[in-house]
Amino acid sequence: MVGRFTTGRKKTAFGKGCGFLKGESGSSAQNYVVATALCAVAVVRTTGAWLQLRLHAASCARNISEPMSKTFFITTAIDYTNSPPHIGHAYEKVLADVIARYRRLKGDKVFFLTGVDQHGQKVQQSAAKAGVPPAEFVKEITQKFVGLWKKLDVQYDEWAETTSDRHKKVVQGILQRLFDAGQIYKDKQAGYYSIRQEQFLTDKERGPDGEFGPEWGQIEFREEENYYFKLSQHKEWLLSYLDNRRDAVIPDFRQIELRNAVQKLFGDLCISRPKSRLDWGIELPFDKDFVNYVWFDALTNYISFAGYDPNASAVATGLRPVETDASSKSLGTAHRAVATSEFDAQPQEFRDRWSKDTLQIIGKDILIPAHGIYWLIMLHAIGFPDDQMPQLLVHGWWNLGGAKMSKSAGNIIDPFVLIDKYGSDALRYYLISEIATGSDADFREGFLVAGYNHALANTMGNLANRTLNMIHRFRHGTIKSIDLTALAESEVRSHLQAWSDGELKAGQTFYRDKFADFRPSNALSAPLARALACNALVEISAPWNLAKDKQQEKLLDAVLYHLAESLRIIAIWISPVLPKAAHGIFDQLNWKMELSGKDERFKLDDAQWGDLPDGHVVGKPVPLFPRIEIA
Ligand code: MSP
After folding, report:
1. Mutate to test the pocket of ligand 1, among 366, 375, 393 (most ligand atoms within 8 A of CB)
2. Which end of the chain is more exposed for a tag (fewer CB within 10 A), N or C?
3. Distance CA 162, CA 171 (A)
4. How far is CA 72 from the centre of its chain?
């Protein structure tokens, strides 16, 4: 009876992560270097900036083809409601939001699901400590998460709360099916039990001295009946699935870690707690003295809030159907009889959303065993075919002074405070630009301020401000589209020509490749490099001198048009990360005003040269990114 996974939720930490593209980093510092180098190239040679970027892109891109699915379904982990959110939670949701916004920008239909994990021991204990019933406690904390996502412009399509009836029905339906199929059984376990960690301990948990360490707190010998899921029965399947799909987990070093862990897998998974010990959970449908504990509850959110019906394919997969709700009957026997798999028999709504390209974003602590083992095996056990297994994107941690930020360690950074101080775009920019997807980062407020001042205030904000000012000063707010071939040969002309001739296209490819690789921090190099190059163009061309010379009228118009058009493209490119600023730029350009404030205003396909018409009148400049003065 030893060797079971009795841990419920055990967090597994790994060493510091590194980027999944060797030799590449997503830090703003490095982006800055790339962009600054490009700027220097622009100043010295005025051409070739995008050639540099292209080479950079070609040497780094993994050549992943972008998923082609009906709806792009993206999820995040659901956060525990035992304490308010910190910036680790904020990072994950912003990362998912940025990827979701990018896919909408590309024209894809997107379904973005996030939410909160409201059951379990930790929540029950925190509620007891606060002296309020758990239901009341989670309601209050849930509101904090909802409030944060609103403030941070995290725009999800569906919100998961695990205490909802909709979710409970699906969890119970799945448990019942697995119980009926003999995949869940009751057994007695006897052994040493950690009261603090709420789990049975095995010999693996003993230290070199043969004793259980102080981290387990008080230990007692306990005998307890519980329900178990036949996890290890699916070990060979999981190994073969991982061997057949190389991008099941991203970055790929995490897939290797997962495979190694699966190889060591033994024993079954304890999925219950007697109500006498814990009652803040979903009751087992086949035994009212127990609640589910706890991954079957949490993980199921990914399908329960996407329209999954646990009874839809019961006949097809050879399991006894369970009539738990009216909607399950609507599929009818005929439909069930022709179903070839769990997936084929699911409601249209679910099938439209779920695919092998479903992207599940999680932190590295919940890959093994929760998502990489329990979740994939659960899906397999309920009949999901291999070609409908989701893809797991595993991110690193935000640390503080080298240690993982967490409430229990008492080292959290409050995102509300940062937003109030610097604004939501500033925090979004920092969270995305400072960390390469998959790696860890150390939170430093000074870096947030420095990155903001350099990239946003001094580079993009300054470009927007000076461009609009000059258009008003020299041309009463009107831009003119000039045929470049009519201009005399000059350094400035060749800069303008190179951009519209091919460098923009290379920039587009770079940008798309980085997003296809889930590397928004690198994708941001495209708008940043463009803004740096434009600022360099202002210095080289000195529009204030051109304005004094009648002979240079056309060149001045060409430069001003170039700057305004570049700003329009920069706004499109930054819109997934900096939605407020992107709208600000479009507003000031007086562009697509009928869609002001709406996401549809931005389209990736519009990021091509020449959309602003000849004679367009731009708006007045308003500071987009006021410099943060360091006291
Ligand atoms: N409730 C579970 C997840 C269930 S998913 C079906 C849980 N909750 S959590 O609140 O502890 O963490 C939620 C997410 O936030 C996880 O993906 C976790 O990795 C992430 N983060 C929590 N702290 C973090 C940092 N310090 N840095 C980055 N992300 C981290 O686990």
Report:
1. 366
2. C
3. 10
4. 13
Cβ neighbours around 196 below 10 Å, total: 11
Nearest-atom index, ligand 1, CA of 362: 17
Q: Is the CB of 374 under 6 A from ligand 1?
A: no
Cα dihedral value 316, 321, 326, 328, nearest 10: -20
Torsion of CA 241, 246, 252, 256, to 10 degrees: 40
Among 92, 163, 303, 434, name the best residue to mutate to test ligand 1's pocket (greatest count of ligand atoms within 8 A of Cβ).
Answer: 92
How many angstroms does the Cα of residue 430 sit away from the middle of ligand 1? 19
Q: What HEC string does 267-278 produce? A: CCEECEEECCCC
- Using one digit for the tens of pLDDT, what is the confidence trace for 22-47? 223 334 334 433 343 333 333 323 33
pLDDT at 137 over 80: yes
**Residue 117, ligand 1, Cβ within 6 A:** yes
DSSP per-residue string spanning 125-165? HHHHHHTS-HHHHHHHHHHHHHHHHHHTT---SEEEETTSH
Are 447 and 606 in contact by the 8 Å Cβ rule? The answer is no
- Which residue in 619, 622, 593 sits closest to 471, CA to CA? 619
- Ligand 1 centroid vs 194 CA: distance in angstroms? 23
Written as six digits, the tokens of 31 are 């982006």
The radius of gyration computed from the CA coordinates of the chain, to the nearest angstrom, equals 28
pLDDT tens readout for residues 167-201: 999 999 999 999 999 999 999 999 998 877 777 88
Output the residue whose Cα is nearest ligand 1's atom 12: 79
- Residue 577: name the closest of 424, 394, 363, 393 by CA: 424
**Strand 109-117 and strand 71-76: pairing?**
parallel
Ligand 1 center to 365 CA (angstroms)? 7
Q: In what order do the strands lie in the sheet with 398-400?
A: 403-404, 398-400, 441-442
CB distance 366 to ligand 1 below 6 Å: yes
3-state secondary structure of 612: coil
CA distance 521 to 542: 32
| HSE-up (13 A, CA, CB side) for residue 239 | 11
> DSSP readout, 5-56?
B--SS-----SPP--SSTT----HHHHHHHHHHHHHHHHHHSS-HHHHHHHH
Q: Which atom of ligand 1 is nearest to the CA of 301?
A: 6
Tens of pLDDT along 104-124? Answer: 999 999 999 999 999 998 899
**In this structure, are residues 273 and 7 in contact, taking their beta carbons and an 8 Å threshold?**
no
Which residues does residue 441 pair with via DSSP β-bridges, in sequence order? Answer: 398
Measure 235 CA to ligand 1 centroid, in angstroms.
26
Residue to substitute in 79, 87, 154, 407 for testing ligand 1 pocket (most ligand atoms within 8 angstroms of CB): 79
Q: Which atom in ligand 1 lies closest to the alpha carbon of residue 361?
A: 17
Find the 92 Cα to ligand 1 centroid distance in Å: 8
> Measuring CA to CA, how many Å separate 536 from each of 42, 480, 527, 541, 611?
7, 21, 14, 9, 23
Cβ neighbourhood burial of 248 (10 Å; 0-12, 13-18, 19+): buried
Q: From 618, 39, 91, select the one nearest 394 (Cα to Cα).
A: 91
Q: Which residues contact 462 (CB under 8 A, 6 or more apart)?
A: 535
